[in-house]
Amino acid sequence: MDFRGKTVIVTGAGKGIGREIVRMLVERGAQVVALTRSAADVEALRGEFGCRAIQVDLADADATREAVIAALPADFLINCAGTTELQPFLETTVEAFDRLVAVNTRAPMIVAQEYARSLIKEGRPGAIVNVSSVASFVGIPDHAAYCASKGGLDGLTRVMAKELAPHGIRANGVHPTVTLTPMAVKAWSDPEKAAGMMKRIPVGRFAEPADIAEVVLFLLSDQAAMVNGISMPVDGGYMIA
Ligand code: NDP
């Protein structure tokens, strides 16, 4: 996959899957505009990959809109930023629920709106990949707000796929299983819980960030020109187990 001459916006580019996506895109010739939160990551992205990096808290709707407008124009968009907080359903707080929906669901909508508006105005095609999770398909204990936020993101992906395709813009979702990143440390550091999850993955391992990044880049690329509106698990077979 050749991304020479293409500009790609990547949210959540500072760590984990997003950072690996940036590395792969730059390796394949893309110009990346990274949107992420921590100042140290912004500096590291600029230094290591020579990309444009914009610091933003995606939980802030106005700041998110401002950041994406500053990032435009772009050929492609990857909504990768995500966050989680573990709480049993009965103890899920309104505050945590709102925080997760703001970052995992509302921010991808705002970013995609501005990205798509700019392409439509210029009459150019594009593609969006939203990084969801297997948690949008199944109920994972202690992940009520996270599962709900990713389910909401899937709904957005499907509507984008229908409404934007006539403008030449595709939208797809990628659904990783547990992937070895800082987020996985937060969610899966209990060895008993991790072992239970691992048992349900037929390939017998958790994902590496590169496993996810390859699929994201494929769905973004012209090789996937006829793929629109899908929710693709990247889960080693977890969903069929
Ligand atoms: P990480 O926590 O490792 O990295 C997430 C990145 O998103 C960080 O750079 C983080 O910045 C950024 N981010 C989070 N919140 C905000 C915010 N409010 N504003 C701006 N940037 C923000 O996560 P992963 O790489 O593991 O996850 C990437 C995506 O994959 C997420 O959408 C996640 O839900 C999904 N996913 C991950 C799985 C896993 O097991 N790892 C499994 C399934 C799906 P900072 O650190 O500065 O806050």
CATH superfamily: NAD(P)-binding Rossmann-like Domain
Q: Give the CATH level 1 class.
A: Alpha Beta
The main β sheet shows up as: 7 strands, parallel
* CATH architecture classification: 3-Layer(aba) Sandwich
SS strand fraction: 15-25%
Strand order of the largest sheet: 3-2-1-4-5-6-7
- General form: globular
What do the pLDDT scores average to?
97
CATH topology: Rossmann fold
Number of strands: 7
Please state the CA-atom Rg, rounded to the nearest Å. 17 Å
What's the N-to-C terminus distance? 31 Å
- In percent, how helical is the residue content? 40-55%
* Distinct bound molecules: NADPH dihydro-nicotinamide-adenine-dinucleotide phosphate
Order of helices and strands: EHEHEHEHEHEHHHE
**Number of H- or I-type helical stretches:** 8
**Low-confidence segments, ≥5 residues, pLDDT <50?**
none
Number of domains: 1
Describe what you observe in this structure:
This is SDR family oxidoreductase. Keywords: NADP. This protein is α/β, with parallel strands linked by helices and 241 residues long. It has a single domain (7-179, 208-233), classed as 3-Layer(aba) Sandwich (Rossmann fold). The chain contains eight helices and seven strands, in the order E-H-E-H-E-H-E-H-E-H-E-H-H-H-E. The chain has helices spanning 16-27, 39-49, 61-71, 94-122, 144-164, 182-188, 191-199, 209-220, and strands at 7-11, 31-36, 52-55, 76-79, 126-131, 169-176, 231-234. The chain has a seven-stranded parallel sheet with strand order 3-2-1-4-5-6-7, sandwiched between helices. Helix 1 (16-27) crosses helix 8, helix 3 runs parallel beside helix 4 (94-122) and helix 4 (94-122) packs parallel to helix 5 (144-164). It is globular and about 50 Å long. The chain starts with 6 loop residues before the first strand and ends in a 7-residue tail after the last strand. The protein binds NADPH dihydro-nicotinamide-adenine-dinucleotide phosphate. NADPH dihydro-nicotinamide-adenine-dinucleotide phosphate binds next to helix 1 and helix 6.
